[in-house]
């Protein structure tokens, strides 16, 4: 038997699992930029990229301004230069994180993506489920009414899943 907690706004109950997931996934203000705090983005044709640090790891957040795909990667080293090829090489290795750390990182990624979406006025935010674990995570997230309400508050509404793509449109 699962536990339930009150959802006072809707005068009902939600599962404890859904509550924990929704509580864990909220944008977390974080310093970011080419020096981890100046809030600047690099531009490579249609791709814009920025960085943040968490503990001993570096993360990049990217937005494809043509397709509106958003993504992120991690590296234990910061790029020695800001050439696109160097950034790709540094941030292509996927590293597994604990669930707790993954939610902390996603909160920061989520915050930076929303800042970038506003800065570049993108009409859609598209998350890609590039592997089964990420697709499973996004599948659960798209069922999470509290997360979806937060995205609406930020100006984006989930409209559809198309294969491995999860599409939010600006409202």
Q: Kindly give the count of domains.
A: 1
What string, H for helix and E for strand, traces the elements in order?
EEHEEEEHHEHHEE
How many strands?
9
Which ranges are low-confidence, i.e. pLDDT below 50, for 5 or more consecutive residues?
Answer: none
Q: How would you sum up this structure, described in words?
A:
By secondary structure, the protein is an alpha+beta fold. It has one domain (4-170). 34% of the residues lie in helices and 30% in strands. It has helices at 16-24, 84-90, 99-120, 132-142, 145-153; strands spanning 4-7, 12-15, 42-44, 47-54, 57-64, 69-75, 124-128, 156-162, 165-170. The strands form 2 sheets. Strands 3-4-5-6-7-9-8 form a 7-stranded mixed beta sheet. The protein has a two-stranded antiparallel ribbon with strand order 1-2. It is globular, with a radius of gyration of 16 Å.
Descriptive labels:
globular; 5 helices; alpha+beta; 171 residues; single chain; two-stranded antiparallel ribbon
Topology summary:
Elements: E1 4-7, E2 12-15, H1 16-24, E3 42-44, E4 47-54, E5 57-64, E6 69-75, H2 84-90, H3 99-120, E7 124-128, H4 132-142, H5 145-153, E8 156-162, E9 165-170
Parallel strand pairs: 6-7
Antiparallel strand pairs: 1-2, 3-4, 4-5, 5-6, 7-9, 8-9
Briefly summarize what is shown:
With 171 residues, this protein is of the alpha+beta class. It is 34% helix and 30% strand.
